[in-house]
Write a structure and sequence with these properties.
42% helix, D-Maltodextrin-Binding Protein, domain 2, seven-stranded mixed beta sheet, disordered N terminus, 372 residues, four-stranded parallel beta sheet
Length: 372
C-alpha cells in the first residue's frame, strides 16, 4: 500500500535501528509523531501486525474516515512473526502490536517483557485441527495415542493443549516434556514444526495423524486433500486470540493516543456488522490475498473480530499455560500487564456521542461480563 510499510526483518531490522537512532534528535517528524496528543492534534501511531490475517478495523477505519475524525494517523508495519514484532516494540520502532495471539505475548511477559494488553483484535481465531478424510474423529478420545502437528506457542497449540489439559488427557511435547501420566499407554504426542504449511504437509504425508494451524490455511489444506476434523473454539469459547498490546511506558505516556485509536476501531467494529463482504474485499485489496482465501476466514463463524480486552480470558490462558508448563508466573502480577480502563473510557465516550447506538450499549454489557 502507498501509505504503509512492508518490512522484511532479515534485511531491514538493522536499518530501522539506525533510522530510529537518527530520529532521536529530530523531534516528532519521523518517529512517534505527537503521540502525547492535545485536542485538535493528529496523533501518529505505528501498528505492527502480521500480513496474513488482515487488520480489518484499520482497513475500515481508514476507508470510512474514522481515523481522521478521531484525530489519529495509523502507520501499518507488517512483521511476519512475534519475535521480530516484540523486538520492534521494545526498540520503540512500533508503538502497538495487534495480530500476534495471546500466548506468545504472555510468554514474553513471563520472560520479563514489560508489555500491556489493552484491547483486542480477535477473541477467537479460526484455528482448526485437520486430518485426512479417512482419519476418524468423534471427540477428544480420537486423539489418544496419536501424533498432532503444531507450531509451538501459537494459539492453535496453546488452545488445544489447554483443552486436553483441562479434560485430563496425558500428552507429550518437545520430545521429553510430559503433562499428566507419564506411563499412559495412549499418550498424545505433539510434534513441533516451524511453519503452518509444514504442519499441513506433515498431515498429508502421514507423519502425524492430525495438525492444528493458525487462521487462513483452509484452502491449502483442501488442496492437500485434508479436511477440518475439530474446531477448538467449540470446546473453549472466547479463548482469547490476538490482543492489542504496547509497552507499559508507552501506555502510561500515550493514553490519549490509545483512547483515540480505540474509539476509531470501535466505530469500525460497529460498521462491520452486516458489512462482512466489504470487510473481506478490503482484506483482499490491502493484503493482495485471493478472495476465496479472505472469505475462508473473514466470513468464518469460528473467527470473531472483537476490540474488547477480554481480560478474564487472558487470565484463564495465563493459568492454563502455567499448568501445562509453557511459562512460570513467578512473582509477576498479570494485572500489571492488562489494562481495560482506556477501552472502557473510549466506549463510554462513544455511548455519550452516539446515544442511539445499540451496538455500543451492547459492547458495554459485554465488557462488564468479560473483564476483571
Amino acid at each position: 500500500m502507498k501509505t504503509e510499510r512492508t518490512l522484511c526483518i532479515a534485511f531491514a531490522f538493522a536499518a530501522m535501528l539506525i533510522a530510529a537512532a537518527g530520529c532521536s534528535q529530530g523531534g516528532n517528524q519521523a518517529g512517534r509523531g505527537n503521540a502525547g496528543g492535545r485536542p485538535g492534534d493528529t496523533i501518529k501511531i505505528r501498528v505492527g501486525a502480521q500480513p496474513t490475517s488482515g487488520q480489518v478495523f484499520q482497513f475500515i477505519a481508514e476507508k470510512h474516515g474514522f481515523n481522521a475524525e478521531e484525530g489519529v494517523e495509523v502507520e501499518m508495519v507488517w512483521l511476519s512473526n512475534l519475535s521480530d514484532a516484540a523486538s520492534a516494540l521494545t526498540a520503540n520502532l512500533v508503538d502497538v502490536l495487534s495480530t500476534y495471539g495471546t500466548g506468545g505475548p504472555l510468554t514474553q511477559i513471563a520472560n520479563g517483557q514489560d508489555f500491556n494488553m489493552f484491547a483486542g483484535y480477535m477473541v477467537i481465531g479460526e484455528t482448526p485441527v485437520y486430518g485426512k478424510p479417512e482419519m476418524a474423529y468423534k471427540n477428544l478420545d480420537s486423539f489418544r495415542g496419536k501424533k498432532i502437528g503444531i507450531t509451538r506457542g501459537g494459539t492453535p497449540d496453546i488452545v488445544l493443549k489447554g483443552i486436553l489439559h483441562d479434560a485430563g488427557y496425558s500428552f507429550k511435547y518437545g520430545g521429553t516434556t510430559v503433562i499428566g501420566d507419564k506411563n499412559d499407554p495412549d499418550m498424545i504426542e505433539f510434534v513441533e514444526y516451524r511453519k503452518n504449511t509444514d504442519v499441513l504437509q506433515a498431515v498429508a504425508k502421514s507423519e502425524v495423524a492430525f495438525g492444528a494451524t493458525a487462521t487462513g490455511y483452509q484452502i491449502q489444506a483442501r488442496e492437500l486433500g485434508l479436511e477440518v476434523k475439530m474446531w477448538p473454539d467449540e470446546l473453549w469459547p472466547n479463548h482469547s486470540c490476538c490482543r492489542m498490546l504496547c509497552t507499559n511506558p508507552y501506555l502510561k505516556n500515550n493514553e490519549e493516543a490509545l483512547f483515540r485509536i480505540l474509539r476509531s476501531y470501535l466505530r469500525a467494529e460497529e460498521y462491520m456488522q452486516g458489512n462482512m463482504q466489504e470487510v473481506s474485499d478490503l482484506v483482499v485489496e490491502n493484503l493482495d490475498l485471493q478472495k476465496e482465501t479472505a472469505d475462508s476466514f473473514v466470513l468464518s463463524p469460528h473467527l470473531k473480530y472483537d476490540t474488547d480486552p477480554f481480560t478474564k480470558s487472558i487470565k484463564i490462558m495465563w493459568e492454563k499455560m502455567s499448568g501445562f508448563g509453557y511459562l512460570t508466573t513467578g512473582a509477576i502480577d498479570l494485572n500489571d500487564h492488562m489494562n481495560s480502563n482506556i477501552y472502557k473510557r473510549a466506549l463510554e465516550s462513544l455511548i455519550k456521542d452516539y446515544p442511539d447506538s445499540r451496538f455500543f450499549k451492547g459492547k458495554m454489557d459485554q465488557f462488564a461480563k468479560n473483564n476483571l
